[in-house]
# Entry
Amino acid sequence: MKTSHNLETISLPVLGMTCAACASSVESMIGSQSGVEKAEVNYATQTVKVQYHPNEIQPNAFQKAVQSIGYDLIMDTESGREKQEEVQGKNYVALKKRMVASGILTVPVVLIGMFFMDIPYANYYMLALTTPVLFFFGRNFFINAFKQARHGKANMDTLVALSTGIAYLFSIFNTLYPEFWHKRGLHPHVYFEAAAVVIVFIMLGKLLEERAKSNTSSAIKKLIGLQPKTVLVITENGEKEIPLADISIGDRILVRSGEKIPVDGEVYEGSSYVDESMISGEPVAVPKNKSDKVFAGTINQKGSFRFMAQKVGGETMLAQIIKMVQDAQGSKAPVQKLVDKIAGIFVPIVIGISLLTLLLWVLVGGENAFTQGMLAMVTVLVIACPCALGLATPTAIMVGVGKGAENGILIKDAEALELGYKVNAVILDKTGTLTKGKPEVSEMIWQNGSSFDKQKLNSILYALERQSEHPLADAIVNHLKPTIASEIKVAGFESLTGKGVSASFEGQKYWAGSHKILNDVGIKINDELKHTVESLQLQAKTVIYFADEKQVLAIVAITDQIKEGSADAVTELLKRNIDVYMLTGDNHQTASAVAKQVGIINFRADVLPSDKAEFVKELQSQGKIVAMVGDGINDSHALAQADVSIAMGKGSDIAIDVAKITLVSSDLMKVPKALRLSKLTVRTIRQNLFWAFIYNLIGIPVAAGILYPINGFLLNPMIAGAAMALSSVSVVSNSLRLKFSKLI
# Structure
């Protein structure tokens, strides 16, 4: 549960939804409660996300509201999904039993209705067999339809109850009072078999739909399956096996060869190779030695080691990934909001069309007009289920998000997945994105020979950089640390964004940073130093100046190797006609050298953090859809401004928090993969929506009898029921095809 400005957000599993119109009913019911800011129901994940004011309403009120229209909420926020799956599993088994029993009773009804209509008491046999199919095994359709009607709402159950109920009542009338039709020279047809078969086919469709939908969340199940059930903890009395839930921060844990790592932590004894592919997508096992980090869900391959638990429960990287994937699968793509509106008004429109169908048949149908009009009305109600429409977008999003998770691409919001394919400009940060982000000092060059107290100045520079947040500062700190005998304290420390840092020691002020800091202070550099700096920069090295109030004391050359795959990723993006830009706070020469190595033509150097966001705006003003890829705190503003924001998983927490897509590993090739995944997902959504709309566009007029004047064809309600079930299953199956798509 998250809180913001006296507004809380809670996500709860919903029970009992059977179609998109159900989702619309639950959403509007909760959304209409006083104190609720916003309610969003996702039919595919069967969850509702509610933003509400806790001082005005509590979550229990949501449950009462949805219970009044035939649904329910699971209020347990910790293990709600597990309970939901348990309930859904039981419902699946119960539905299967009801369908089988209904099928056994329906077979003789169909045989009598189609082949043995002339046997004595045929109609009464069919009445006796059909009644339990509708009102015992299929009673939920009528109960739910009644609950909806009490609140002036309608859903798929309404369509099923109306169509089968009308067919059943019409058939009873014709069975008990056949002379009503005989007097008018007409034969009293009965449609018991149609009513029974529709119930059976709709049950079968729901059964297949539930099975298919459960497959769309297999990525989540696979991730959850990475967590071991028990753990070996090292205590004073030796090794002890305890449940995963009982681990605490600080526990010392033993991991043997072939075992899964239970929580996040740091190795303190032993060494091994760990397979991190399930969370990073990297196929090569990673060596782990003392002080290295290990993550929950990864698999120890060779050797054993001991580590100290640092993050447990919901704080582990794996738990965060699972939560991110679940939230993304439950989020709505913009197109889904339009579909939800259509689904919400779809059922009332269909009821209106069915009544209009009956009226037109009665007015212009000629002989047997009323009977055929009733049949056409029933068929319209059966064939027009909005299930396929409701499943079209969320199932594709679910599979797309799952596919991304399996490839180390974590999508936090469905909107990013829907928008990614439109991206035609990608901005790459340099340090930590194109480069490894592990800068090292290659050389430190002092000025004016040996006239300085280098030991003292090293300590001052060390104290300055130790307080800096810039990623290059760590390289200087690591380089100087072995030379520092005792740490000193500097006064008046100041971080100058995009330029460097400054502080005072013993009344003297010192600066460390880029050439911009020298310009601000007014320090000139001689030609010899300028030549040295240019030479270093042409080697793609970054130069940091260390100066006092009068002069440059030293320059520090820092190198950051380009990642393997960076050049390939840039090539792949350019191949897709996507413009690639590099932004860096580094100087022009270093930026140019790096850009040349990876194949980027467009780059900007000496860029401040605020300039990055301005550059994003500049491209957007040219009509470009911009993706920003970054890893640092200084990228967060630009990430927030971009249309699609992508954070490197090993970057800062702020960058990851702002970004809509996170790459678990540092492999830049995942950027074109993420954009390709967006394209495949959007294509699947469009295919699904096309089939869902075209199905109703063709099916409803045919069901209403539009072909009857041409060739005498009138669609049988039984076939309509089968077609309705098939439409939902085909949409889900099409979404599942995404699982087998290649991303490059």
Summary: Residues 585 and 606 are 4 Å apart (CA to CA). The longest helix spans residues 80-115. The chain has a mean pLDDT of 82.
